[in-house]
Amino acid sequence: MSSSTPPSATTTSRPAPETTPVGRALQRIQREHPNLSTTVAAIKTLTECIQISKAATLSELIKDLEAQADILKLFRHQNVAIVAACDLFSRFLRDSHHDVFNLDATKERIIAAGNDLVDKSDETRAAIARHAAKHIIQEDDVVLVHSYSRVVVRALIHARRENTRFKVIICEGHAGRGRALGHATAAELRAHGIPTALIPDTALGYVIDTVSFILVGAEGVVQNGGLVNGLGTFTIALVAKSASKPFYVMAESYKFVKLFPLTQYDLPFHDPALIDVSGSDASSSRLPGADYTPPPFITLIVTEYGAFSPGRVADVMIAMTH
Amino acid sequence: MSKDVSLQVDAFIARLRRRQTVGSFNVAIESAKILHNVVSGSRWPDQDHLIDLLQHVGRRLIAAQPGEIAVANAVRRVLNIVREEATKLPLPENPKEFREQLRAGVKQAILDMIDDFLHSGPHIASQALQHVHPNDRVLTFGWSKTVLEFLKEAGKLRKFQVMVVEAAPACSGHQMAVELATAGIDTTLVTDAAVLALMPKVDKIILGAHAVTADGGMIATAGSLLVAEVAKACKRPIIVCSGMYKVSPLGLMQQQEVLSLNSCPNGVYDFEEGDVVERVEVVNPHYDFVPAELISVLVTNMGTHPPSYMSHMLDDVYSKLDLVI
Amino acid sequence: MKWTTIHPAVLNLGLQYAEWGIAGGNARCTAMLNTFARVIADYTTPPHQTLSRHLTSVVSRHVDFLNTTRALSTSMKAAVRFLKHEISVLSPDLPDEDAKAGLIAQMRSFVEAKIDFADKAIVKETLDKGKIRPGDVILTYGFSSVVNKLLLKAHARKIPFRVVVADARPKFEGQRLLASLVAAGIPCSYCLLTAVPSLTAPRPTKVILGASAVLANGSIMSRAGTASVALLARMARAPVIVCAENYKFTETLRLDAFVWNELGDSEELSAAAATMPVTSTGGHVSVLHNWRDIASLKLLNLHYDITPAEDVTLIISESGFIPPSSAYMVFKEIEQNVSLA
């Protein structure tokens, strides 16, 4: 795929992605399969693009896919998850360069790889959940979680099924608009009989000393082993470090993404205006849905291959690109 | 004021402006002497008028060279002296008698204060053995007369090593190194660039100050903050030696004016091609502000204290009425 | 030509090194290889000797000589390892002239690949991935050839940014960078290391540095003063980017900057620099002019320091973006691809 400057999520010269066919396809897939993470949904979308592509040669196909990926990257919401999918897809393309002359066979191979990932995504998530339940969640632990994360909920339910006795504190994840997703987490955990407290984000500093560890999901894991995840994650990581609490991330390996943010504001979805000081009520509208947590704040990243330090994950990513 | 005293004041203001009188020690003493002569050589009906007069003269002195904080310190000290002496005297029946007693009391107190200033260095140096131990590896930055006397005093009885950071562009550390070595102290002169590399080989840092602020921070030769941050990163203690005449009752926010005067008189770049000069902004501050949290201990002529204690000591020598002159 | 003597070109090179006429990892390495090319061109194998073994000893002798003029840099050591390896794998059947021509071509390729191409790749990757942004205030220190190339290219791409060049005694290498940037029309500020904590208007948004070597634990060996800049950057929450070609990655581990460092000439500190009055009286005779007569006085002129990995946000080489913790892994990978270009 192209290594050109990442298309800014705020440029006005490009079409709004939700008005494009590929953008609408992504949204449709997400509606039809709400259990898929955004990365997987984007992979599925790009796989479909291959199926309907009218390209006659391999290089045309690559160009076509690059164009579709570039459009998808214009989505500001879950931007990094989409970039991860596009990265992964470009690896599929690169790995299938063997059969240059048989386009159909190549397309088959890539579609198969994409579908394989999508089909296995549920089991991948389950494997991570099982690992966390077995090795991380211990008897009498107080687990702090943030907002809503499918893999975290999965892990907690699994631990409950294994009859581990533990409690959960949920930071509701209020992002200034809409309902805080922590409520959905609370409902689901309580339905499984897990003792749960839902707290406003403001109470984090107050409760942190009662917590055993923090468990979060991931929108993406970046090149240095850092984390991009729902807005508020970094705040929790800061408090956790200050209180010497372990901070664990659960992330499928397809969420590894070739981005290297230098600062909080060095990701594609950053809006330089940052906050709207015009005084209107939508004052948080320029804030992104995600933030960046640098590696020193992360204790372990749990993947389907096991739990690694951010440094090990960074090593793995270097090996992946060579 | 008498014409003679008025001329003296003008002459001193000129010397301050032209930087002919420089350095906290010199300006503190000269300011105090001038104010002594003002008290002595002028007519004033009562203490309020005396205070007004001293404030008026004081403002002019301060305006002559705002970067010399010791001037304002001396002015405030003298004002406090007047207030204190006035309360000590019994209410007289005779205003003239009161005036003369006040005049005498204030003059003597100012002379005592000047004496105090003159003995600052030796008083500080007398505490050296508490802080410099045998085989210590000490690091210091640039030139400081106070620190020099401090280390020389320690050097009379103890063997230790000193690393002097040269403090470009003025490189005042060169003179410091020569004087320490000449006094028989094992001295190594090093470049500013080597500070971080050497810090693990240092036991403590001893610095001089241009001025100390009310919160226990200090204003010192540019580069002091670099040394202090490196010391903090390597967890080495910083000892600051400073006479009380350098301690200001103002906190940093009010000292912004001093820092904004930042322009080191020594040039930093001798551009060969003339047009490069015009196109480059040269940043060459004279001073740094080192915050109190980087300083472990302040050694003054009134003893050794943590920076947080500064505000208590200020109450003894300054009046809150004189924060704005 | 007697091979027990040193080739005049190498003598001359040694002198230039000693006088710092040629300084900086890339420049010293390139000059050395260019000079060795001449040595090899002039070389003839003595009778009853094999080129491979004898030439290796000649190279070693010249390297040892250069080391006495000024300690070899990491870049030079990498080049010497490469050259010795190339000599050692020469086929014994190859005629001498062909062998020599081959070695000379290899050395040129080394420079082209390890320096020229590497720098181009570093610059491209940095700029393509948007690591220099409009409005950036970039703090750098001393002179680094790759940082120079990067900033010039960023400017050529019409990205508006400002540079603050920090510098220090005794070498003032930053002035060389400053001259280059100013000539290209880049808005610049200049200050000494002592002024770096005072840089507030405008405040640097990032720091970009060069390196002499990248050590096994991700720490950086560079010109003395670099570590201070990186420390201050971390405290000011500005990211620190280090640009270093792959051939500067080593498996050495150095935990402090003191024991092994290169000591410079003490006289340099005492020489009255033309750029500033040294004495408080404003005279131009150095206060230190008779320092040798003062028994208790030593002058210490350290050339390098070590920037710990935690003060570095990102290392950029021709292999791409590397977190400092992955430096050793990258070194191992590079080692496995010994022959290049």
What would you say this structure looks like, in words?
The complex is a heterotrimer of chains A (322), B (325) and C (341). Chain A is an alpha/beta fold and 322 residues long. Chain A has two domains: 17-121, Four Helix Bundle (Hemerythrin (Met), subunit A) (Up-down Bundle), CATH 1.20.120; 124-321, Rossmann fold, CATH 3.40.50. Chain A contains ten helices and ten strands. In chain A, the strands form two sheets. Chain A has a seven-stranded mixed beta sheet, sandwiched between helices. Chain A has a three-stranded antiparallel beta sheet with strand order 5-6-8. In chain A, helix 5 (103-135) crosses helix 6 (150-161). The longest helix of chain B is centred in the N-terminal third of the chain and has 24 residues, at 95-118. In chain B, helix 4 crosses helix 5. Chain B is globular. In chain B, a hairpin with a 2-residue loop joins strand 10 (297-300) and strand 11. With 341 residues, chain C is α/β, with parallel strands linked by helices. Chain C has helices at 8-18, 25-42, 51-69, 74-88, 96-128, 145-156, 174-183, 226-235, 266-270, 327-336, and strands at 137-141, 162-167, 188-192, 206-209, 213-214, 220-223, 240-243, 297-300, 304-307, 314-317, 320-322. In chain C, strand 2, helix 7 and strand 3 form a beta-alpha-beta unit. Chains in contact: A-C, B-C. At the A-C interface, helix 10 of A face strand 11 and helix 10 of C. Chain A: It is found in: Cytoplasm, Cytosol. Chain A: InterPro entries: eIF2B_alpha/beta/delta, elF-2B_alpha_N, IF-2B-related, IF_2B-like_C, NagB/RpiA_transferase-like. Chain A: Belongs to the eIF-2B alpha/beta/delta subunits family. Chain A: One of its GO terms (cellular component) is cytosol. Chain A: It comes from Caulochytrium protostelioides. Chain B: GO terms for molecular function: guanyl-nucleotide exchange factor activity; translation initiation factor activity.
